[in-house]
Amino acid sequence: MKQNFAVLGAGNGGQAISAYLKLKGKRVTLYDRFPQVLEPIRKRGGIQLEGVDATGFAQLDLVCEDVAQAVRGAQVIFVVLPAFAHAYVAQQLAGCLEDGQTVVVCPGATGGALEFRAIWNKAGCTAKVRLCETNSLFYAARAHDGVATISGVKDELSLAALPAGDTQAILDDLADVYPQLIPAANVLETSLNNMNTVVHPLPVLLNAGRIESGEKFRHYFDGITPAVGDVVEQMDQERVAVGRAYGLDILSLRDAYVHYYHCQAERMSDLCHMAQAHASIMAPAVLDSRLVVEDVPMGLVPIAELGRAAGVPTPIMDAVITLCGALVKRDFRKEGRTLESLGIAGLDRDSLLAKL
Predict the structure, then answer these.
(1) What is the CA radius of gyration of the chain?
(2) Which of 31, 34, 66, 203 has the fewest CB atoms within 10 Å around its CB?
(3) 200 is catalytic
(4) Which CATH fold topology does 196-355 show?
């Protein structure tokens, strides 16, 4: 049972996790790169946690803008940041990690743990740490002015370590605070079970005119019409096929709706309209939102690259990567997570699975 935790990232998820851990009796340090993000927490003296999972005022042990200070003496380090911030914080961690620590990338998006390991290797980090990632966040949560509100808690979340031999020991260490964690086969399974890649960028792309004209509409309930839903499902089938090529029976989006939200319907659009947890989620107000600039380069790009390496065609993913990049004038294939940047270029299927 671990007592000393550091949480890197004071966004919605990071505030909810740090407050929850403190209310569970742990020593908790919260880090964020930007002082203005931490200011409301400092002003309040901690975080008020509200919602279905826990309620109370969490007076954190330390709130700081320095990574080295935040992780000093921490037994478990939760990285709760957008995927486009992973490379920065991995580089910062490379020089200050201590033997025996566990780093949990929560979530890893697609290739999070691989990117951390590749950056640490390149930086010459020799600390003996355990590294793992989850496939999603624990909570649906929002944080504002030092108040974190949890609106939903996943009753099951998969975790895999890199290498996978460390997975069970990490699950055992976290069982007292997150008993809903279950083991995944390896970090390819957690990475390919990143559902955001199929439900975020494509609806934004196909509703670009509505977004750019300033229309306010619900991302899932209004933006995913029957035709859009059909294309989402076709792209999801590509993701599942990539997983199958690596020996993984990953969850389809359709099955995920059944599993997590107990929804069943013939058309994907109807499924998307049945999950009440998504009912109030609005479409982004700008085209270059996280739904594109995070989920394309850190989600679709590595999945498509893994598909290409395994001989699995991903024509819809490829089109979404190209068109979303053109939409926001960015080369996502160049700046995204490639097999080279993840440290797995040139490996055949068996060599990659052995490495994991």
Answers:
(1) 20
(2) 34
(3) yes
(4) N-(1-d-carboxylethyl)-l-norvaline Dehydrogenase; domain 2 (1.10.1040)
Distances (CA, A) of 126 to 51, 71, 259: 41, 16, 40
Quick: pLDDT tens for 16-74. Answer: 999 999 999 999 999 999 999 999 999 999 999 998 667 899 999 999 999 999 999 99
Between CA 297 and CA 336 the distance in angstroms is: 4
Owner of token pair 């200070």: 69
Selecting among 32, 86, 219, 295, the annotated active-site residue is 295
Checking if the pLDDT of 154 tops 90, the result is no
3-state SS of 157-208?
EEEEECCHHHHHHHHHHHCCCCCCEEECCCHHHHHHCCCHHHHCHHHHHHCH
- Rounded to an integer, what distance in angstroms lies between the CA atom of residue 235 and that of residue 253? 10
* Of 86, 200, 219, 273, catalytic: 200
295 belongs to the catalytic site: yes
CATH (one of 3.30.1490.190, 3.30.420.270, 3.40.120.10, 3.40.50.720) for 4-187: 3.40.50.720
pTM of the predicted structure, to 2 decimals = 0.94
pLDDT in tens, 278-321: 888 899 999 999 999 999 999 999 999 999 999 999 999 999 99
Is the C-alpha dihedral spanning 203, 204, 208, 214 positive or negative? positive
